[in-house]
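Dear U.,

For the methods section draft, I wanted the exact inputs and outputs in one place so we can describe them consistently. I've listed the two proteins in the order they'll appear in the manuscript figures. Please don't edit the token lines directly; just add comments below if something needs changing.

First protein:
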Amino acid sequence: MSWTIPPLNPLRAFEAAGRLGSFTRAANELNVSHSAISRHVRGLEARLNTRLFRARSTGVELTETGRAYFDKISPAFEAISLATEALTVPPSGVVTLTTENTVAQSWLIPRLASLKAQHPEIDLRLSISTDVMDIEAHEFDLGLRYLRHDPKQDYARLFPCLVCAFAAPGSVQMSGAKVDLDALARSALVQEATFQVWDEWFERSGLTPPPKLDLPHPLNARLAIQSAVAGLGTVLMDKHLCEPEMQSGVLMRLNAVEIPFGGYYVAINKQASRRKAVRAVYNWLLEQDAE
């Protein structure tokens, strides 16, 4: 049987414009002129004898007929792209990831040698920000964030946040093999801005009723960790963010109490997810969670 298929270039122009909602962005992606996209789309509309797009102030949008056609065409292009990638070179190119400073320093950067070993052709570029942002609007490929509650957006949770108490070795009074909780409650405590749960930690540790604490002004996570390392007090901190200090021995964990307090999530830009390198970094992040 013969296939009823329009020429490939008009189909590519239609698919890109429908996905991006703009003839200009489609032209940039396909490395052709705006007029070439417009010409291909007009030719396809004439061939199909129907309107596929309508103009908007911010670009174009699919008509009802155009949307139905796009929903059938786009997965076919994606399948062709994935099949072709599987037979070609390893993932390569620039991937942009936005995350917070402490997450980058304490969790991500110590693991990047593993990513480089698996995918030496990928150039991962970090953007440090404390804002929870729309990665698609800001044109980042990936976003890695701490979130207190499960997000409504399509984020995948990497690992839970588990808040524990840490102090420099020798800076905490002990009662036998255990921390002297009464003495600790009277000692210097570091207050981190997010994990303000000292009362709950003392109660879970067995000191009831929880004591009245004289807590200092809250610090950001990096400064709170550094304060504990310097022996300025005991800090409540997510255990994942204290991994480097625990491994080097400059901080010790006081007991087994862990307070669940949100988690760390990764989001992928839907447009960027078409690129093999972006999917490779996304999958690598999920593998770190499994480890």
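Second protein (the one for the lower panel):
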Amino acid sequence: MPKKIFTLNEIQKKLQSKRFIKKKIVLCHGVFDLLHIGHIKHFQEAKKLGDILIVTITPDKFVKKGPNRPIFNSNLRLEALASLECIDYLAINKWENAIETINIIKPNYYCKGPDYKNKKKDLTKKIYDEEKAVKSHGGKIYITSAEKFSSGNIINNYLSNLKDDQKRFINDLSSECEFDKFDKLFKKLYNKKILIIGEAIIDEYIFCETLGKSGKEPILSLKKLHSEKYFGGALAAANHLSDFCKTINLYTMIGDKDNYKTKILKNLKKNIKINFFKKTNSPTIIKTKYVDNINKNKILGIYEINDELVNNKDQIIIQDQLSKFKKKFDHIIVLDYGHGFISEKIARKINRLSKSIALNAQLNAANLGLHTINNYKNIETVVINEMELRLEMRDRYSGIKTLLKKLSAKLNIKNLIVTRGNNGSILYSKEDNKYINCPAFAGKIVDKIGAGDAMISIVSLALSSKINKKIALLMGSLAAAQSVESIGNSKKVDKTLMLKVIDNLLK
């Protein structure tokens, strides 16, 4: 078999040689995870348009089609494609889309499959940018007419690497709704008026090389390589929702001893409107984690924080500011990290602001055993993890469902969700007296920090809009999955990516 697999630079050099000057170049690009008859007919039709057929594939790290995808890695996908006689050259794309590749190859024809006949159905909308790039070099975009097949459908039905609980959940959901329904539901959320209340947190990650134990003292020695800072806490929640709603309103606490207000205003998404409260004699909360650069395990955490309760004067200021928000929002999300921002009086004030309130009152190293959600009553949606639930109920041994029902009755919570890591999540609906189990959909878990904020942002928004509870829980689970697959809050929840995953899961 002649060599067909090259780098993009090598292919570019070949195309610049004299023997290719008058040749018509055709380019196809895609994932091609599972080579099937639809792909073969697509390539055969494309080859008829010109002299040289080049196929580029999406690299593994940019394949966002659901958990544990792609099925086959880049090298195996290239090997399979190289066996097709109609393909002349193959390469792995370096980017998330084909725009740069088009600019390198400058094809006479850029071929896409019948899925792209209606360009409006392209969730990423990149087909428009790709078409623009093709035309800028004098080329044309061509939609092949080969019979439509779906790798996702074949994989889901015959080669699925989903777990049994994931399959059951998706099969049940597929029987209730089709993908088009999700697109309509997402549009329903866009004009919702949202308010987020909670502390601003700066997550600093210091990536280190472990040198070993000191020769003189029993301490671990580290070499600092580099550091990164991400917006956490209520700032992260606002970012997560920025794709889903036209405008996000944020009321957040920062310190009065630094310039983070300027940095936050400069770097948050433009559709987030912020009201700041500056806590007296306090820094903005910074949570620093020292991380092993190779395996990304956290070694040590250090908090820069004043977690004393805000003084009486500041409490009055906060309550006055909150009064201005009463009945102005469709949905309020409260993120109470127990760092002194929300007192019992302020919690009661928040309770009266809206009928649709969601709460995430997290336990962490600074408040373990001291924090509680008892200050809140009549909440629409609460997200809590299993350990938080057991501590709240002072019960180590009872079943999760029993504890959910007891806490829901105690605080009159309409929708109570407990997250259980790899075991997924359970929603108890007090109104229906029903439990909904949703499996976890994360692929590779990199960092669990921020997963709760991602989940409550999306699931509570969906539930407040009266979206089917099973659909809402899936949306929340996929939001959490996106969060744990990256370091800290380095990435916000991506609506387009969520829709792509849902589309592939339902095939």
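Candidate sentences for the figure legend, describing the second protein: The mean pLDDT is 88. The radius of gyration is 26 Å.

Thanks,
Y.
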